[in-house]
Amino acid sequence: MMELICIDLEASGLGTKSYPIEVAWINDKTGEYDHFLINPESAPDWHYWDDNAEELHGIERENLVAKGLDIVNACKRMNKMLAGKTLISDAFEFDRFWLTRLFDATGIAPSFSMAGLDKILDREQRLQFNLLAKAQFRRHRALRDVEDIITCIKTVLFAGRNATTHG
Asked: Which residue among 8, 20, 62, 150 is the one 20 to 30 A from 90 at the CA level?
């Protein structure tokens, strides 16, 4: 199987002024992973906060300020560990928006690229993925969500291989 690296982000909300507050990724092939909180006070204009989003992910802004990485260290850490890699997101438009927001705030260019599920799953497989993902209990914490995403992708890919060898 190809190298599968999935990423997930949690954010301050879904609006255009929202920003990333938690990042997690897992390399399914090597077992490498990382996850961290981001301190919104390390970016000049990151003030937007949606209480409904906090209810979903359960991360309080005070916790981000106390335990989060500053935005420059967050970008450098990702660039160092993910250079030249392609990261898969099941919510590509949202995750790309927030990663762009993060990197733009620092002036640092990402050393990696991102793609949606269509990079690795065909249309039918994406439908199967969506059904499986909806059946999961998502915790809305980035690392656990990435684990769930990888489980769904592997289930769909494995089912497809079985269908072609046994069908």
From this structure: 62
Q: Set out the domains of the chain in order of their start, with CATH numbers.
A: 5-166 (3.30.420.10)
pTM score, two decimals? 0.92
pLDDT single digits (tens) 81-136 = 999 999 999 999 999 999 999 999 999 999 999 999 999 999 999 999 999 988 87
Longest dimension (CA), the chain: 57
Please tell me the distance from the alpha carbon of residue 48 to that of residue 157, in angstroms, as a whole number: 39
